[in-house]
Design goal:
The structure holds two protein chains of two kinds. Chain A is of the alpha/beta class. Chain B is 36% helix and 19% strand. In chain B, helix 3 packs across helix 4. Classes of the chains: A alpha/beta, B alpha+beta. At the A-B interface, helix 6, helix 15 and helix 16 of A face helix 18 and helix 21 of B.
Chain lengths: 479, 650
């Protein structure tokens, strides 16, 4: 089987000090020999093929067709099977410019390599048994991570800490199940209710608490993979688009004075104080006969219900009637959705007017019988930037609070992991209830077995075809 | 060796006839195998070493028990005969595990040992197409075709040579066996019966890997010399349903005067006698080479392995109606005879007991079951099937279950049909056979409910619902029985539906019932099914408020009640079975080049090449094949599928 070695840039796109180009597969060293002239290497190696594994050589990378130098580089040699993919491979550390990288890749391909498919290194590493499924999945998460926090979470999973925790949970579940099985098969009489209550307490303390804490961490972890949804709403012309532009830092939305300019929801992804967010600017919510605008209004209402934070803009001159119309859709949101009431365009009025408007909104809310009040009240001027830092702080605080309910040492960021653990949690909970109710042990035993199978989807003990499909749909699987 | 040609040099031999199937051994496996083949119309030779010992119960005089009762019910649902015969010879019947949940309720019956054997012999003799012959099979014949060995005959010790298309070896514990009591070793089968010599070697020559296992049986004493008044009594249950659905249909009930069993605990003296004589135990002196069953240890084993436990329970079971012999369950040993007598005398009520038969350990040859496939046919010698203890299992019920399946599949092969393979979600039988041939065993394998992943679904009460259709399709369930089964199935479904759709308004009578059951009262209407779902309420309790209740039999009521009470668990079980089936349905062709699939660990490659599993599910259960290997295979299969699709499109 004559397969070409494959190569790709292993460092992210964009300008950087140095970049790493990775080439793997049989023949990698031979390709490197054609384009790399060693100037200095350990053990006096003259070619890459002569280099020992895990050694580095300094030299120049040339285009053999013209003999022109492209860059001064360092080459690291890996011998099979001691490499990321288990195959022979070579890593070229070059200067970080875009042209340099492209040139090197071109030269490699002209000399016998081919471009790697998406995720190919990881897939090969998996196929070579270097990574298990959960690690492969975490690699994909690392690649997809686009904020500092998300990357850190994905990396901690790559290092196996989630797997370790899942394995600890599995061990406790196994021991408990073994005990049940022994009673079911070996002992003439079943346990009494007192012992079952004891089992229930043990399960609650050990397995249930751990699973719950992990599953709860997804409240915060989810933000890292799916971003925090921040919905900006208010009646037309309350300054929503201006705020969006301020928070995202560039003119994404068209800002005009005509009410109803933003007819659809507008989404911008950015990161605020390190937290990945999705800012959603809604069409002003108001009763309208304009068909296009009406669709926008529906979307806006839908967006509110999925929000993590609602930034509710009320301008200093907004009338009671329209303010009242928005109270129900916003104040009825679950308490997990944080509400910020922002008196906008503060630069156009004096401080007293702003304060008065805020008091008016608060009293209107109270009049409607809501005991809940907005989680943040403040004033805002998108022109002067007043109030912006308060909003950013509020976003960060909301994120931190999401993590408060969990004592887990790591953050669950992957929806699949969350779903699997929630499902296990549900079964353990039912098992505890069944034990408390004095049900025969075979029921709780089934629930523990099923919970173990769920957790096994993280530890890799349970292989389901859907799991493999899910993970590898992100790879280029094929020839 | 192993061919008809070599017979020319043999002094004495004769052509004894031609059969579709030769069943070698007429124990629990052999009788089921022969019966199934004959019932499916095949000419069947049944060879036995001892014509008076058909379906012998050389160890405990009982059939059924935890997980084993489930097996007997399954055998019956498929059309086997163990349950039917056991019902007729039962002297005591009980449902074990009543204090546990319905999934592990297990019927067990004490047998009149002589009667069971006699009835089975009569049943077999009356069966058309079976030739029952006393004879010792000593050699298999085969021909080689395209590198495969194909079975075509067998020879007995007396020179009778039979042409056969298939054979089912059910040699039990007889092959090259020897019994051991302390220093005394005798080349013998169980119960002092003669053993089988030569067949094991012939199988080995065919390429089958052999193993050596050990099991044992306890002391029998004379009841006249035993004081049962100091023992705890275990009476039978009067209302037990029979094992057999056919007997149930015909109204067979347990007999009136059931015989009790008894139980006692070992004393400190028992322990002393054993400890002082351990140096004479062949197990510990190294005389015994075979591997014994962990789940059915000898009494000295129990004391040595669990030093914390000061005493062990011993059950005293009658061996039949017309005998005074008592069996001491849990007291199996291979210590010398003189020590055995002292051990027995240390037990309460047995201080004067007269030992009629001493306990012994027995070593025998069996095969490595991983050389068989899921239909129980050998992968080394085509046409050769194996069932029972020769496959490394222990227990009468485990043997009968395999015998039935091996018989069915030998017949299917001759009839040119697909083999019948039950999977782990269908039956204990499926779990048993899959465990043996996929995982293999290094000790006598005993069925346990914890081996069944889908235990809540695999119950003794619904064995007929799970398997009668299959038995009918095979041809072992006749039309009368099938139509009565269909009627039962319909009445269960109808009744469940009625209970779900009948709502009761709150009423004084209902409240009285709820009060009596210790259940919470209802404020609004509630369906009968919702009420039955409550653990404290039973179908029977609701009679007074359920006025339109149809007349139903006990078994239907039981099935309805379990289905409703366990609705949630059964739904979860179904979901798990769906996931299981996804891997089971991914078939692996025998010519997959495992050794060239990168990513498979070395051990997995060689195991897969050697065993050629039928499905990805089966592959995942082979020891040495890890979940990561399975993921690799999934990716491989997926890539292969794409490749084929692309090829088709071109």
């Amino acid at each position: 089987m004559l397969e070409k070695p494959y190569c790709a840039c292993a460092t992210p796109p964009g300008v950087s000090g140095i970049a790493v180009i990775r080439m793997a597969g049989d023949g990698s060293a031979a390709v490197a020999d054609k384009v790399f002239h060693i100037r200095r290497a350990a053990g006096d190696a003259r070619t890459v093929s002569e280099m020992a594994g895990y050694t580095v050589a300094y030299g120049v990378l040339i285009d053999p067709s013209t003999n022109e130098m492209i860059d001064e580089v360092m080459v690291t040699r890996f011998c099979a099977p001691h490499s990321y993919t288990g195959e022979e491979s070579v890593e070229i550390s070059c200067h970080g410019g875009l042209t340099v990288r492209q040139e090197i890749l071109r030269v490699l391909m002209e000399n016998g390599a081919r471009m790697a498919g998406p995720g190919e290194f990881t897939k090969r590493a998996f196929l070579a048994g270097k990574l298990d499924l959960s690690q492969a999945e975490a690699v994909m998460d690392v690649i997809a991570a686009d904020s500092e926090l998300a990357l850190r979470a994905a990396e901690s999973q790559l290092s196996g800490s989630l797997k370790q925790q899942a394995e600890n949970i599995s061990t406790v579940l196994y021991l408990q199940l073994a005990l049940f099985e022994m009673y079911i098969d070996e002992i003439e009489e079943e346990d009494d209710n007192e012992t079952k209550t004891y089992y229930a307490e043990e399960l609650e303390k050990s397995v249930y608490a751990k699973l719950k804490s992990l599953a709860d961490s997804y409240r915060q972890g989810r933000i890292l993979s799916e971003r925090m949804k921040i919905v900006i709403c208010g009646i037309p012309n309350s300054g929503k688009s201006s705020l969006l532009n301020c928070l995202s830092g560039y003119d994404r939305a068209i800002v005009t004075d005509v009410p109803g300019t933003t007819r659809d929801t507008l989404e911008v992804v950015t990161s605020i104080r390190g937290i990945p967010v999705k800012l959603i600017d809604t069409a002003g919510i108001r009763k309208t006969d304009d068909v296009v605008e009406a669709i926008g209004v529906d979307r806006a209402t839908a967006a509110i219900t999925e929000a993590d934070i609602v930034l509710w803009l009320v301008s200093t001159d907004e009338q009671e009637k329209t303010i009242t119309e928005l109270i129900d859709p916003i104040l009825n949101l679950p308490k997990e959705t944080k509400i910020a009431l922002l008196i906008s365009k503060s630069d156009t009025s004096d401080e007293e007017t702003v304060k008065k408007q805020e008091v008016k909104v608060r009293s209107l809310i109270a009049e409607k019988g809501y005991s809940r009040t907005p989680d943040l009240c403040g004033s805002l001027s998108s022109t002067t930037g007043e109030g912006l830092s308060g909003i950013e702080e509020f976003i960060r605080k909301t994120y931190d609070e999401m993590g408060a309910s969990s004592s887990a040492e790591l953050l669950l960021t992957n929806r699949r992991h969350f779903e699997v653990l929630s499902s296990a949690l549900d079964k353990v909970e039912k098992g505890i209830a069944a034990l408390r109710a004095g049900e025969p042990l075979e029921g709780p035993a089934l629930l523990l077995r099923a919970a173990l199978e769920d957790v096994g989807e993280i530890t890799g003990k349970t292989v389901s075809d859907t799991l493999v499909d899910t993970i590898f749909s992100r790879f280029c699987v094929g020839k | 060796m192993g061919s008809w040609e070599q017979l020319k040099d043999n002094a004495f031999w004769y052509e004894a006839g031609t059969y579709d199937v030769a069943v070698i051994g007429a124990g629990h496996a052999g009788c089921e195998a022969a019966f199934a083949c004959a019932h499916l119309g095949l000419s069947t030779l049944l060879l036995t070493l001892h014509l008076d010992q058909l379906a012998n119960l050389p160890c405990n005089p009982s059939i059924g028990g935890t997980a084993k009762g489930q097996l007997v019910r399954e055998i019956d649902a498929l059309g086997g005969i163990m349950g039917e015969m056991a019902d007729l010879s039962a002297i005591q019947t009980r449902m074990l595990n009543r204090s546990k949940g319905p999934a592990v309720f297990s019927p067990r019956a004490q047998m009149d040992r002589a009667s069971y054997s006699r009835r089975m012999k009569e049943r077999i003799e009356k069966e058309e197409h079976i030739s029952l012959v006393q004879g010792e099979a000593v050699e298999l014949f085969w021909e080689e075709k395209d590198g495969r060995k194909i079975l075509n005959g067998i020879r007995t010790r007396s020179g009778a040579c039979y042409h056969v298309k298939t054979a089912v070896v059910c040699s039990g514990t007889y092959m090259e066996s020897r019994t051991i009591r302390g220093e005394v070793i005798v080349e013998s089968g169980p119960d002092g019966l003669s053993r089988s010599v030569g067949l094991s070697r012939s199988m080995e020559e065919a390429g089958i890997t052999m193993q050596r296992f050990k099991t044992g049986t306890p002391v029998r004493v004379n009841a006249r010399t035993v004081d049962t008044s100091v023992m705890e009594i275990q009476p039978g249950e009067p209302d037990m349903p029979p094992f057999s659905y056919k007997n149930e249909m015909n109204g067979v009930k347990p007999r009136e005067n059931q015989v009790p069993c008894y139980s006692v605990w070992t004393t400190p003296e028992t322990r002393t006698v054993i400890t002082e004589n351990m140096d004479r135990s062949p197990l510990y002196s190294g005389v015994i080479e075979g591997t014994g069953p962990r789940y059915c240890p000898s009494i000295e084993d129990k004391f040595m392995r669990f030093p914390d436990k000061s005493r062990h329970q011993i059950f005293v079971e009658p061996m039949g109606d017309n005998t005074e012999e008592l069996y001491l369950q849990g007291f199996s040993t291979s210590l010398p005879e003189d020590v055995q007598v002292r051990m027995v005398h240390s037990l309460p009520g047995l201080s004067q007991a007269h030992v009629q038969r001493a306990a012994y350990a027995i070593e025998y040859d069996c095969i490595d079951p991983t050389t068989a496939d899921l239909s129980l046919e050998s992968t080394c010698l085509e046409g050769l099937f194996t069932a029972g203890q020769v496959n490394g299992s222990s227990g009468y019920e485990e043997a009968a279950a395999q015998g039935l399946m091996a018989g069915i599949n030998a017949a299917m092969k001759i009839l040119g049909k697909d083999p019948v393979i039950l999977d782990r979600s269908q039956a204990y039988i499926g779990v048993l056979i899959d465990d043996l041939v996929t995982k293999g065993t290094h000790e006598p394998y005993r069925m346990m409910t914890s081996r069944a992943e889908y235990r809540i679904f695999l119950r003794q009460d619904n064995a007929d619902m799970r398997l009668t259709d299959i038995g009918h399709e095979i041809g072992l369930i006749d039309e009368t029985r099938y139509s009565s089964f269909v009627a039962k199935r319909t009445s269960i479904e109808t009744e469940k539906e009625r209970l779900r759709s009948t709502f009761l308004p709150p009423s004084p009578m209902l409240h009285e019932i709820l009060n009596r059951c210790g259940s919470t009262l209802t404020q609004s209407g509630i369906s009968l099914a919702e009420l039955i779902k409550r653990p404290e309420i039973h179908y029977r309790d609701l009679g007074p408020v359920d006025t339109k209740r149809p007349e139903l039999t006990e078994d239907v009521i039981f099935a309805v009640e379990v289905d409703i009470k366990y609705e949630g668990y059964l739904a979860l079980e179904e979901e798990r079975i769906r996931k299981f089936a996804a891997l089971e349905n991914k078939k692996l062709s025998p010519d997959i080049p495992y050794d060239s699939i990168t990513g498979l660990r070395l051990e997995a490659r060689s195991k897969l090449m050697q065993r050629k599993p039928m499905s990805l599910g089966q592959a995942s259960r082979i020891s040495g094949v890890s979940p990561a290997d399975i993921a690799v295979l999934l990716v491989y299969l997926d890539a292969k599928k794409r490749e084929e699709r692309e090829k088709r499109e071109e």
